[in-house]
Amino acid sequence: MASNINQHPQALYRLPQILELIPIGRSTWWKWVAENKAPKGIKLGAKTTVWKSAEIHQLIKELEGEA
Length: 67
Prior knowledge:
Blueprint: E1 12-13, H1 15-21, H2 26-34, E2 42-45, E3 48-52, H3 53-66
């Protein structure tokens, strides 16, 4: 896990930060979102989406449980 990622429960992550934590490609991430395997993001603008850090860390825990 990258040490420079803010783990505050109310932090918001952009996609590049998420991909540092979960080693998958952008298209895979968006596929997971469409399939409800990953949380839906929060749109801040036409080209800006963020995700709640607590939801991302919960997803990581779930993925680690599958391994």
